[in-house]
Amino acid sequence: MGIRTLRVAVILIGVMPSGAALITMLIIDRPLCLDCIAERTNMSVPRVEEYLGVIRGSLTVYHEAYDRCRACGRSAKVVSLDQPL
Ligand SMILES: [Zn+2]
After folding, report:
1. What is the pLDDT along the chain (85 residues), one digit of tens a residue?
2. In this structure, what CATH number is given to the domain that contains residue 16?
3. How far is the CA of 39 from the centre of ligand 1 (A)?
4. How far is the CA of 8 from the centre of ligand 1 (A)?
5. What is the distance in A from the centroid of ligand 1 to the CA of 76?
6. pTM attached to this predicted model
7. What is the DSSP string of the chain?
8. CA of 61 to the centre of ligand 1 (A)
9. What range does the domain containing 40 cover?
């Protein structure tokens, strides 16, 4: 993670609900499926979806696609953040 990315992440943590900020950190430069995000954050999938809604509304770099999850390797809906700025 580059210094610019880190700075953006720090800003986000200040303005977002902590759950959304946590997810943001997880998916920067690394597309993950909802199951893996839920597992890593100890949240339920519906809760993850809820926070993704917050992130989607806040970040233009938010990206959703059908792709391979970088954590579990399954093909599924994955979410990620494109390199900001
Ligand atoms: Zn996964």
Report:
1. 566 776 766 666 666 778 898 998 899 889 999 999 999 999 999 999 999 998 898 888 899 999 999 999 999 999 998 865 5
2. 1.10.10.10
3. 9
4. 24
5. 8
6. 0.81
7. --HHHHHHHHHHHHHS-HHHHHHHHHHBT--EEHHHHHHHHT--HHHHHHHHHHHHHH-TTEEEEEEE-TTT--EEEEEEEPPP-
8. 20
9. 3-81
Locate 66 and state its tokens: 């059908």
Q: How far is the CA of 68 from the centre of ligand 1 (A)?
A: 8
Tally of domains within the chain: 1
Sheet containing strand 75-81, strands side by side? 32-33, 75-81, 62-68
